[in-house]
Description:
Low-confidence stretches: 1-39
Helix content: 40-55%
Number of domains: 2
Strand content: 15-25%
Structural class: alpha+beta
Largest sheet: 6 strands, antiparallel
Distance between the termini: 64 Å
CATH topology of the largest domain: Beta-Lactamase
Number of strands: 10
Shape: globular
CATH class of the largest domain: Alpha Beta
Strand order of the largest sheet: 7-6-5-10-9-8
Radius of gyration: 27 Å
CATH superfamily of the largest domain: GAF domain
Number of helices: 10
Amino acid sequence: xxxxxxxxxxxxxLPLFQTDMPTLKKPVQSIAIKPAVVTSAVTGTQxxxxxxxxxxxxxxxxxxxxxxxxxARAEVLSRTTTHRILRxxxxxxxxxxxxxxxxxxxxxxxxxxxxxxxxxxxEVGRWREVVEAISRAAGVTCxxxxxxxxxxxxLLKADSHSVMRFVPVEVGQRRxxxxxxGAAALLAALDPKRIDQVITAIAPSLAAFPxxxxxxxxxxxxxxxxxxxxxxxxxxxxxxxxxGIALPGSNGPPHLAISIxxxxxxxxxxxxxxxxxxxxxxxxxxxxG
Length: 289
């Protein structure tokens, strides 16, 4: 803590003042100047929030990665600020940078830290056989998705042995709630007030999905709550069909969902009916076992 004598400060700059100032007769008390702890705390918190937002933006891009310009635009940050944070994240192993195409992907440390999450590991362990069984029986790609704030993250993926594989999401990739079948099932499982809050929060980011808007999300929520299944057809990926179902939770709204993905051109009403039965039976068997 610095102590600055007020009298000394005035006398030091006395030539700047009127020369006929009255003489100071009483002893001058010292003023304690406290360091700007609050400002530093705010600055540190802001930096952490920005780094977190940048990591989420990179995770959304998946294996293809994303560029500096795309990240800065998505997070409404200057390129200088974005580059400074990215450089630090790369140095620490949270992010990887490919010089050839100048794109950023999630780094090895993110995966390593994720392995230490007891809850995620237990959930993947419990539902792995179910996800793999659905993929084999339906001949489609199957996912385990987990709600994370206003997003859903892919915890597990099982590829089918079908010749025409359809893989719109990779493990670790994030989707806004309501974007994609699994994320849509998780959105519909929330209470009405929270659903409205989420849709309002993600509305500005829906510009990247021309076929999705707040109105279609609300309509999807209504359909999902009525049928038990969320349907996504051509809204995220062209010629893509997805179907998701939320897994009942023990406390509060479901935070896990299982979804499937296939080429829309191969889907019919009969296949949808068959896939629903496969998913219901596999989930019911796991819950009763």
